[in-house]
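User: Design a sequence. Structure:
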C-alpha cells in the first residue's frame, strides 16, 4: 500500500500538469484567433521598387525628382493597390498634366532637333528679324518676313502644348520649318537626310532622298507614295506618314527602356498612336510597363 499511494499521487500530478498544458495551449490559440483574425496585406512588391519607380517617372516626364509631398502622395496611391495597372496610370496621368511636363517635352525636342534652342533664343531672333524688316526692301524683306512668320509660329509651340491647341505633330512641323533648323542642316540634301535621321532613325533610300530633294525644291514628286510640291508639303507628308508614328515609338522605347521595340511591339504601339492620335497614350503605355518599373 505504501508504494501504491505515491505512484497514484504522481499519476494524478502528471494528469493535472497535462490538463494544464492542454488548456493553456487551447487558450493561446483562441487568443490568437480573436486578437488577429485579419491578416496583414501580403505585399509581393517591395517598397524600394515603388520608390524607385516614382523617382524614374518624375525624372522621365518632368525632368526632376518628386518633392516629399508628391512622393508621399504617389507612393500611397501605388502601395494601396500593390502597384496595380490602373493606379500606375493615375500617377502617370497626374505627371503628364503638369505644366512642367510640357516645359520638359519642349526642352527635350529642342535639344533633339534645334541644338538646345530655348524660348529666350526664339524671342531674341524675333526681335532681330523685326529690326531687319524695318529697313529691308525687295527680296530681303520677303525673306525676313517669311522667317519672322515661322519664328512666331515656333514661339506659339510651348503655350500651345499646355493649352491643347498644338499637338506633338504640329510641334515637330514647326520645329523643322524655321531658319534655325535650316542653319543647322544647310542645303536641301542635308535637310532631307536630317528629317529621316531625326524622326525615323535611319538614312533615306536613294529614291526617298531624290524625291525628297525634288519636292523640297518646289518640284512635283512623291514621298511615301504621297504627291506634293514644296517644302511645306514635304514636311506635312513626312510627319503625317505611318513611318513617323513608328519612329516616335522607337524613340520612346530607347528613351525609357534603352532598347528598340520588337517588331510586334513596334506595330502594336504605333497603331495605337495612329488610332488615338494621343502622344501621351504612347508614353503612358511604356511608362506603366513592368519592364520600365523593373519587375
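Assistant: Done.
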Amino acid at each position: 500500500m505504501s508504494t501504491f499511494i505515491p505512484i497514484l499521487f504522481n499519476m494524478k500530478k502528471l494528469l493535472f500538469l497535462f490538463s494544464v498544458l492542454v488548456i493553456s495551449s487551447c487558450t493561446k490559440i483562441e487568443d490568437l484567433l480573436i486578437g488577429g483574425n485579419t491578416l496583414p496585406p501580403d505585399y509581393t512588391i517591395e517598397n524600394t521598387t515603388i520608390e524607385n519607380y516614382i523617382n524614374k517617372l518624375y525624372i522621365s516626364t518632368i525632368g526632376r525628382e518628386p518633392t516629399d509631398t508628391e512622393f508621399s502622395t504617389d507612393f500611397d496611391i501605388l502601395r494601396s493597390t500593390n502597384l496595380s495597372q490602373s493606379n500606375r496610370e493615375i500617377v502617370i496621368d497626374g505627371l503628364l498634366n503638369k505644366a512642367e511636363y510640357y516645359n520638359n517635352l519642349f526642352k527635350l525636342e529642342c535639344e533633339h532637333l534645334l541644338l538646345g534652342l530655348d524660348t529666350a533664343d526664339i524671342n531674341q531672333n524675333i526681335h532681330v528679324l523685326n529690326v531687319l524688316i524695318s529697313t529691308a526692301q525687295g527680296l530681303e524683306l520677303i525673306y525676313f518676313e517669311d522667317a519672322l512668320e515661322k519664328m512666331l509660329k515656333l514661339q506659339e509651340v510651348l503655350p500651345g502644348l499646355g493649352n491643347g491647341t498644338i499637338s506633338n505633330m504640329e510641334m515637330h512641323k514647326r520645329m523643322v520649318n524655321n531658319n534655325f533648323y535650316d542653319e543647322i542642316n544647310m542645303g536641301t540634301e542635308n535637310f532631307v537626310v536630317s528629317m529621316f535621321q531625326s524622326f525615323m532613325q535611319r538614312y533615306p533610300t536613294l529614291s526617298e532622298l531624290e524625291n525628297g530633294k525634288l519636292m523640297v525644291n518646289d518640284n512635283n514628286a512623291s514621298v511615301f507614295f504621297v504627291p506634293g510640291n514644296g517644302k511645306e508639303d514635304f514636311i506635312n507628308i513626312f510627319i503625317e506618314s505611318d513611318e513617323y508614328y513608328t519612329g516616335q515609338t522607337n524613340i520612346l522605347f530607347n528613351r525609357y527602356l534603352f532598347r528598340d521595340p520588337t517588331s510586334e511591339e513596334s506595330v502594336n504601339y504605333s497603331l495605337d498612336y495612329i488610332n488615338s492620335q494621343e502622344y501621351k497614350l504612347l508614353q503612358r503605355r511604356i511608362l506603366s510597363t513592368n519592364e520600365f518599373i523593373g519587375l
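The CA atoms of residues 17 and 256 lie 68 Å apart. The mean pLDDT is 89.
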